Amino acid sequence: MERRTFLSVGSASVLALTAGFPSIAAGTTADGPAAVVEAYYRRARAAEDSETFAEQVPELTHSVSPLSELATDAPMAFDGTLRQELVDVEVVEEDVSAERIEDISDFFAASVGEEGIAQLAGNNAVVAVTLEADGVIGGRVAKEWLVAPEDGEWRLVWFDGRNSPRAAVREFFRQVNAAGSFEALDEPVDDLSHSVSPLPSVVEYNPRFFAGLRRQELAGTEVVAENLDAGGLADRFGLFANWARRADIEPIAGENAVVAVSLRDDSIGAGEFVQEWLVAPEAGEWRVVWFQ
Q1: Which domains, from first to last, does the chain contain?
Q2: pLDDT in tens, 236-248
């Protein structure tokens, strides 16, 4: 696969969702993988305009990344970067595979080609960010950056420009853990759940259903199935199928994803185990339906 030159400003406009200023740095160090992501947002915050910011982007960018070319050819694509706010940043995965890198976005995979992906695979990190963003349900967007070392420093490679199934699960897990009490779970669960999900009802009547999530540590995520039909949903998520009406299942049949979530719970000596989460898109956003 040959590297493709970035030509489309329209495609580049997805950068409008990657903006802000690092007010929280969870689990990061000054020179770790998250530092370059924080620097990106810090410089965006200080820049007078998108052209000024775009001139600085190549200093933070890996040589494999198309970001430098984008900054040169279409600095206006960074306009949104100056308007949104970063509220949380965390390293969530390390040394991901070539297949995982290809999943970041179709444009990115086509741009860097097979050789570029092979160069990045196995020596990288995924940095999850949460952004304050006007015009989206709940006011926040979860994104993930791929970063990789080069010449002894961590560099930006690309971001998950889509509202992905993995990102939806991570943001749900993060907000459930960040809530100050069980009583405070109502708002994040309502905001991040699909309209067919029973989870808002569960949190209203039995908030301690989420007690396990609140003491567990997220170790990794992987999409293991996509676009199950109604029968497949019922077979894989029996509790949800028993709870939901047929009319609730039909809207998500054929358009969904199953995310395998690796968790650790040291409090019960369980070591690492896996849950499956069902997510589905609604109004352009991936949302959590159920987990078990």
Answers
A1: 9-162 (3.10.450), 193-291 (no CATH)
A2: 999 898 888 888 8
Q: What is the pLDDT of residues 142-197, one digit of tens each?
A: 678 999 999 999 999 998 755 678 888 888 988 898 888 988 999 999 999 999 99
Cβ-Cβ contacts under 8 Å for 36 (sequence gap 6 or more): 60, 147, 153, 154, 155, 156
Full-model pTM:
0.61
Strand order in the sheet with 285-291: 217-226, 257-264, 272-282, 285-291
Distance separating the N- and C-terminal Cα atoms of the chain: 39
Mind giving me the DSSP string for 248-266? Answer: HHTTTTTS-EEEEEEEE-G
Question: Which residues are paired to 147 by β-bridges?
Answer: 125, 156
